[in-house]
């Protein structure tokens, strides 16, 4: 018998941007406790965004909600822009917009508890900053640069700069980080899916290609390609930004203390995004990672199944 649910409210938001129709679009389905796994996947496929979030009642009373996150093809344990976008949405519900405020949103995800500090001021759209539940972990076993270059449609000689080299890190999702010699090379990437299988496990989540920004080691431009997760290119990838801290710690040989960077993504798609990344280092190892960005509501509706 076909499952029928009426009045299932959803919102769409743009995340990691201060302007609507920029950043990474997100769909959030509220009060989704009665939806089956199959229906959640069908809805995510229908929205056809990089991720769709389903909000459920929290298992623990001290937490705000439980989230399940789906791409058009599968469920993820964690993703950055869905976490921040949903936290902003939940914090704004019933909020007093006549004054500035900060709320702590506690979200149960498959990766574990993720805390998000959400701040609203009169000067900008609501801002969320999450503390990563999983620190970057080096996986290794990277494919050779010739294979990576083939998948990206670039020359092998354009891979790498300084101490930056191809690296495979996991922080809930595990992209392959590929440093490129220039912004022009990044712009001219032309992925070849026929070469993607040669990447093996390193290509399952996607390739995160990046280059230096205008402020050198404090700013980067990035693009993420994830055809195997149903996304040709992602405008802003928060979970990859968390793992990126691991690659940066290795390449920049970070001193102990707090470090921060700005990541620009989505520019070559016409959806410019900004992700703020922070990492704390002690004894040469990363001890905490945070990512942050703004989010805006775009639409609201009701889905019937």
CATH architecture of the largest domain: Roll
Number of E strands? 17
From the alpha-carbon coordinates, what is the Rg to the nearest angstrom? 19 Å
Percent helix among the residues?
10-25%
What percentage of amino acids are in beta strands?
A: 35-45%
Biggest pleated sheet: 8 strands, mixed, barrel
Class from secondary-structure proportions? alpha+beta
The fold-level CATH name of the largest domain is: Diaminopimelate Epimerase, Chain A, domain 1
Shape descriptor: globular
Number of domains: 2
Give your account of this protein's structure.
This protein has 305 residues and is an alpha+beta fold. It has 2 domains: 136 residues, Diaminopimelate Epimerase, Chain A, domain 1; 156 residues, Diaminopimelate Epimerase, Chain A, domain 1, CATH 3.10.310.10. 17% of the residues lie in helices and 41% in strands. It is built from 5 helices and 17 strands. Strands 1-2-3-4-6-7-8-17 form an 8-stranded mixed β-barrel. A hairpin with a 2-residue loop joins strand 12 and strand 13. The mean pLDDT is 94.
